[in-house]
Design goal:
Layout lengths: L4 H23 L9 E2 H5 L2 H5 L4 H10 L5 E5 L14 E5 L14 E3 L6 E6 L1 H10 L1 E3 L6 E3 L16 E6 H8 L4 E3 L4 E3 L6 E3 L3 E6 L3 E5 L2 E2 L20
Antiparallel strand pairs: 1-3, 2-3, 4-9, 5-8, 6-11, 7-10, 8-12, 9-10, 12-13, 13-14
Helix pairs in contact: 1-4
């Protein structure tokens, strides 16, 4: 069977995401304080050697990634005639890290003050957890992910999200001292409070795509039907 280029790109993209967001320490890849890693060192990792990843292929993956997950740039020491030398380039994931970075704000810009609301997309099992705990949580990552829109993979909102949580950004800033940021690929991020939480007091409403408004004004408006309760989270979507 001939190789599938699209499948190869997806496989490499997933491997890059894991390494740059979560697995660098375990895999022996050094990250700078701002999350950047040397491309030459990354290409020498056994997993990428096995995938046959080259610098031109890496550039293609970064360019074609529809979620704009990666940032690739020349190192400060790179000369004009070294544009084909992977040792002179750096790469990082634009957001989604669970690895502790001492300078996460270097990846981000402050969310403009005129943005009043943001939306967190999630799934029914996570919604049940949010109600039970009274908050959204970072769940082991550096930030809670939100969007300024309701759909679109580049905006921080999964197109298949079942539940939309509308966060009152203005109130969270004013009353909770919560900071909000924007990543290079347009995802709205917040670390929440000192415990990594964003309380329901800063949520205006929660809407199900199937059932309409579920929660509003501090109370449950519509209970989830029994057939939607106790579901498993979809694979790879365990972050609330």
């Amino acid at each position: 069977r001939p190789p599938n280029p699209a499948s190869e790109i997806r496989t490499i993209s997933k491997a890059l995401s894991y390494t740059l967001r979560h697995g660098a320490v375990k895999e022996g890849l050094a990250l700078q304080d701002d999350g950047y890693a040397n491309v030459g060192e990354l290409l020498l990792l056994p997993k990428f050697q096995k995938l046959g990843l080259t610098f031109p292929k890496l550039r293609q993956v970064v360019l074609e990634n529809d979620k704009q997950r990666f940032s690739l740039r020349a190192a400060a020491t790179a000369a004009a005639d070294e544009e084909d030398d992977p040792q002179k380039f750096l790469i990082r994931a634009t957001q989604g890290h669970s690895l502790p970075l001492s300078n996460t704000t270097a990846l981000l810009s402050p969310l403009p003050p005129d943005v009043k609301f943001a939306v967190h997309g999630t799934f029914y099992p996570a919604y049940e957890s949010i109600l039970a705990s009274g908050c959204l949580s970072r769940m082991g990552r550096q930030h809670i992910h939100l969007s300024t829109g309701e759909v679109g993979v580049k905006s921080g909102m999964r197109a298949d999200a079942q539940v939309l949580v509308y966060v009152d950004v203005e109130k969270a800033r004013r009353e909770g001292g919560i900071e909000f940021w924007v990543s290079e690929n347009g995802v709205v991020l917040t670390a929440g409070d000192e415990l990594g939480r964003l309380g329901m007091e800063f949520v205006e409403r929660v809407v199900s795509k199937e059932l309409g408004v579920l929660w509003e004004g501090g109370r449950v408006v519509v209970e989830l039907p029994e057939e939607l309760k106790g579901q498993r989270m979809p694979v790879g979507k365990g972050h609330v």
